[in-house]
Automatic annotation (TrEMBL), chain A:
Record's protein name: ABC transporter permease
Alphabetical keyword list: Membrane, Transmembrane, Transmembrane helix
Annotated source species: Anaerosacchariphilus polymeriproducens
Top-level division of the source organism's lineage: Bacteria
Lineage: Bacteria, Bacillati, Bacillota, Clostridia, Lachnospirales
Transmembrane segments: 7-28, 208-228, 249-274, 286-306
Keyword hit for Membrane: yes
TrEMBL record, chain C:
Domain of life: Bacteria
Lineage: Bacteria, Bacillati, Bacillota, Clostridia, Lachnospirales
Residue intervals passing through the bilayer: 16-38, 314-336, 357-381, 393-416
Identification of the protein by name: ABC transporter permease
Keyword field: Membrane, Transmembrane, Transmembrane helix
The keyword Transmembrane helix belongs to this UniProt entry's keyword annotation: yes
Length: 315, 225, 429
């Protein structure tokens, strides 16, 4: 039978964990919206103009960046994607080691695709690309006319428009500096960002929400454990009177806290699977890291407060 | 006659059980009385004292103060009555540890809208009376048990109450401190203060003029010395 | 006495008061930012709605793309007057609004202007230095727009002003508006000397557009004007005095007759528009135009609108959860504070304090913290972040009212509804 104290603990932290999950989900979705409304580029992307394409095939761009060659406003070739996972409605994106000529297209392009041997095909310059994924969100956007190609021959142009994109602005800047040092005659241009990030102050608000979420969670942990320590004051004192040493008392509470956290996490997972219906969040590294940090921080605060009380009362 | 209790009854409800603590209490307190209320632990002595001090209401009966019926008062009315007429000294002193001796003794006068000079005068008088002058700027937490008890008494008497109610004044004190506290009560009584002390210590009750015994929720007839 | 008790309260509870102050400040900043954000979102949406919903927008281009055709037309004696009359007819039409935009670059002698403002920079073109009459010029991005266009796109000035009707009358100095990115380079009142279509023009900066001002142009609903110099499309009523002037006016008018016709999206209005256009063409004896009758704008506007709505819903969910947790936090803190302070309040009550004293004390304790948080929020939103308006800050202040009420009601209720006034041993400090 779960005691009331533990029930309060479990309920409270279930709500907090769900809040953390919602923030992660919000960030994921927000990033998707930014991508979808900016033609599947982040706000960090930068552009190079070059007559020579070959050097770009061997340019080192790190694990978190990607490289495209724009053929026209709606069509681009993917040179390097490094396990990028853009918002895909159906199918999958290009993965490392993919063979053959593949395409990932917007909803409108899919409707115009040919059917060949049970596969959907689009053509460019007499080359056929198999559609393996459909980009976009569950609403219409200009990304519905987008075509991303992989593996085929990039049509010869007088000058290629190379796009370097990634999740970290700092990394993009560093790579750009390196490339410009290596090839000083290259033309580099900062493009105009479009979409929801520019039309509204969305990115700023995202940062503010994240900051608020972080501070709120820290405050909540601290205040809850101040409250929790008060609840256990008597119990603590009795254990001390009975001669149980501090270490054993601490261990007893660590077990108690971890058990309650386990219940909270289980209930939260249930919520994520049944209410949010999104299993992808559960495997997000960010969620696992944050939850681990969160549990660790809570244990440290709880024990710190307890120890403080012990030292004060039992000195 | 200063304060009279007639057929006072008080019960406490604990979950589903009702426990009668005071059963038909009758008591008269005259001006200048020096009363001890004795009884075993759990007999209801502190409850009786709290009723006298209007800290808690009673279930049935009548309380008469200065020939005026003081029926069930509202929260604010009880505060007002307490402010004007009652001084209370508790067993745990209940001083405020974030201020010094002077500020603690001054506390009741803050609620009485007196002039600053008058307040200073009254507090200094009490400090002198209780031999606390050299401690006035000292923080409460730095005082011994006996010194804290004296501060608690000072706080209770600074407003010149009609009745001084004292709950187990020597419960947590050593013999020497106990004697000095009782000497203070003797001195206050000699100055005309009406004192009611709840105690189970015969050393305290022997100094009082009247002793009451509380047993089975009933108060015995006073033993007058 | 209240002030003294307040000071003692804050001394006793400095940590928790700071805690509460920081938490409420951040909460208020969040709410203030949210309201401002939603207001901007709704404003953006309603702005676009006004422009695109229920409107049919048709593009019109001239037929003289081919060089030969162009030359054939230009050598006609009355070609310029035909263009002028046609343009004037469009500009003064009753059944539709005529919007014309051109992105002809201008030349400027100031070489220190960063390359990002240069014409062709975004397309990776090398920025050339143009040598004219022994002077070196830099080609700079610029847009020419008529008054109807400026009104239609609701261009707003963050500093200075945007054009009014007088600015479209030919004068010695051309009033120009600069995009937001020019803020660090020029200021309102600065005089510039430019070369536009080979003509020397003196300009004066009358204003800077708001950041991220945009128009619909070149099939893009988000054509941002931050890096552009905007010039008014003047109507050159007077006859050209020289061949150079004639050529200059001709080039201008060829730009001006390429534009967009905007009318209400119903059969009657569209028919009237067609009829009037035909009549204008007849009157001006000019029929060298092609009418593109497709309407991509509404769909594009709807796309952005849907994304904005999606964004708004997402943020509302997170904000609601944030609010709930903030409320839980406030209640926890209120409860802990009640536990901490009950001892003191009980001692006051025993000494004869009234309920009203305790309530006033509790109210002031929290009100001062909330007031400090409110003022901090005001400073942060107004001076540091420069977002929102006064109404936004007041809305954020409602949080403070809620906090005060919940703290006072919750805490005082617990304390004073207790008829038994006693101090338990465990309440001792």
């Amino acid at each position: 039978m779960i005691k009331l104290k533990n029930l309060i603990f479990i309920s409270f932290f279930t709500v907090v964990i769900i809040f953390i999950v919602q923030i992660i989900f919000y960030n994921m979705r927000q990033n998707d919206l930014v991508l979808i409304s900016n033609n599947f580029y982040t706000n960090n992307y930068t552009v190079f103009y070059d007559q020579d394409l070959e050097k770009w095939r061997n340019t080192e761009i790190g694990d978190k960046c990607r490289l495209f060659v724009e053929y026209d406003n709606n069509t681009r070739f993917c040179l390097e994607n490094n396990e990028w996972n853009p918002p895909i409605i159906k199918g999958k994106f290009f993965s490392k080691g993919l063979k053959g000529k593949k395409a990932v297209v917007g909803k409108d392009i899919e409707k115009q695709a040919e059917h060949l041997n049970g596969k959907k095909i689009i053509s460019l310059n007499n080359e056929k690309y198999e559609i393996i994924g459909i980009l976009g969100g569950d609403f219409t956007s200009k990304s519905d006319s987008l075509v991303l190609l992989y593996g085929g021959e990039i049509p010869k142009q007088n000058r290629y428009k190379i796009v370097l994109d990634g999740d970290s602005k700092k990394e993009i800047r560093n790579i750009t500096k390196r490339i410009m040092r290596q090839y000083p005659n290259l033309i580099h241009a900062e493009p105009d960002i479009e979409g929801v990030a520019r039309v509204t102050g969305t990115l700023f608000f995202q940062r503010l929400l994240n900051l608020n979420g972080f501070i709120l969670v820290c405050f909540l942990i601290f205040i809850f454990f101040a409250f929790w320590e008060r609840m256990h004051k008597k119990e603590n004192y009795v254990l001390y009177l009975l001669g149980v040493n501090n270490k054993r008392i601490m261990l007893y509470y660590i077990r108690n806290i971890l058990a309650n956290f386990t219940f909270s996490i289980i209930v939260s997972c249930f919520y994520i699977l049944v209410v949010m219906k999104d299993i992808n969040i559960l495997v997000q590294p960010a969620l696992i890291h944050i939850l681990f940090g969160f549990v660790l921080l809570s244990v440290v605060i709880a024990l710190g407060l307890l120890r403080g009380t012990m030292n004060k009362n039992f000195a | 006659m200063l304060l009279k209790l007639q057929h006072i009854q008080k019960s406490f409800i604990n979950g589903r059980t009702k426990r009668a603590v005071l059963n038909d209490i009758n008591m008269e307190i005259s001006k200048g009385d020096y009363i001890a209320i004795m009884g075993r632990s759990g007999s209801g002595k502190s409850t009786l004292l709290n009723i006298l001090g209007t800290l808690i209401p009673y279930d049935k009966g009548t309380m008469i103060y200065n020939n005026q019926k003081v029926t069930q008062l509202s929260f604010d009315q009880r505060s007002e009555f307490r402010k004007r007429h009652i001084g209370f000294v508790t067993q745990q002193f209940h001083l405020l540890h974030d201020r010094n001796v002077y500020e603690n003794i001054k506390l009741p006068l803050n609620f009485m809208k007196l002039e600053k000079d008058k307040i200073k005068k009254e507090v200094n008088k009490v400090l002198e009376m209780l031999d606390l002058e050299s401690f006035q700027k000292v923080s409460i937490s730095k005082l011994s048990g006996g010194e804290q008890q004296r501060v608690a008494i000072g706080r209770a008497i600074v407003k010149k109450p009609d009745i001084l109610l004292v709950d187990e004044p020597t419960g947590s004190l050593d013999e020497e401190s106990e004697k000095s506290i009782l000497d203070i009560f003797d001195m206050l009584h000699s100055q005309g203060t009406t004192i009611v002390i709840v105690t189970h210590n015969t050393a305290v009750s022997e100094r009082c003029d009247k002793n009451y015994f509380l047993k089975g929720g009933k108060l015995s007839a006073p033993i007058i010395y | 006495m209240l002030i003294k008790e307040l000071i003692l309260f804050y001394k006793r509870n400095l940590n928790i008061c700071l805690f509460v102050y920081i938490q409420i400040t951040i909460f208020m900043v969040l709410i203030g930012t949210f309201y401002s954000f939603i207001y901007d979102l709704d404003f953006e949406n309603s702005d676009m709605k006004k422009m695109y919903e229920d409107n049919a927008i048709y593009q019109m281009i001239d037929n003289y793309v081919d060089g030969n055709e162009f030359n054939k037309f230009v050598v006609q004696k009355d070609s310029l007057s035909k263009l002028k009359n046609f343009y004037n007819g469009l500009e003064n039409a009753e059944s539709f609004h005529y919007i014309t935009i051109a992105n002809q670059h201008l030349l400027i002698t100031d070489q220190s202007i960063p390359d990002k403002f240069a014409y062709g920079y975004a397309n990776g073109m090398e920025v050339p230095s143009v040598n004219v009459d022994n002077k070196v010029y830099k080609p700079i991005k610029s847009l020419q727009i008529n008054l109807n266009g400026a009104k239609f796109f609701n261009l707003k000035a963050a500093e200075g002003k945007v054009w009014n009707e007088e600015d479209f009358v030919i004068q010695n100095t051309m009033p120009i508006i600069l995009g937001d990115s020019y803020h660090d380079i020029y200021k309102v009142g600065d005089k510039l000397h430019i070369k536009y279509l080979e003509k020397d023009i003196n300009c004066i900066v009358i204003g800077f557009l708001e950041k991220n001002s945009k128009i619909f142009y070149q099939n893009n609903l988000e054509f941002y004007l931050d890096d552009y110099i905007l010039m008014p499309m003047w109507n050159y009523i007077m006859q050209p005095q020289s061949e150079f002037e004639a050529r200059y006016q001709m080039m201008n008018y060829f730009n001006m007759i390429n534009g967009y016709l905007v009318t209400k999206n119903n059969k009657n209005d569209i028919n009237r528009m067609m009829q009037e256009l035909e009549s204008i063409s007849k009157d001006a004896s000019f029929d060298g135009y092609t009418f593109i009758g497709y309407n991509p704008h509404v769909k594009k506007y709807q796309d952005i609108s849907v994304i904005l709505q999606e964004n708004k819903n997402l943020i509302k969910i997170i904000l609601t959860m944030s609010c709930i947790l903030n409320i839980i936090l406030i209640l926890f803190i209120s409860y802990l504070q009640y536990k901490n302070e009950r001892y003191y309040y009980n001692v006051f009550l025993i000494q004869g304090a009234k309920k009203s004293f305790i309530i006033t004390l509790k109210f002031l304790e929290i009100m001062l913290i909330v007031l400090a948080a409110f003022l901090t929020q005001l400073y942060i939103l107004n001076h540091l972040l420069k977002i929102g308006e006064f109404a936004t800050y007041i809305k954020a202040g409602y949080i403070g009212v809620f906090v005060i009420l919940s703290y006072v009601i919750f805490g005082t209720n617990l304390l004073l509804n207790n008829k038994e006034l006693k101090i338990d041993k465990e309440e001792e400090v």
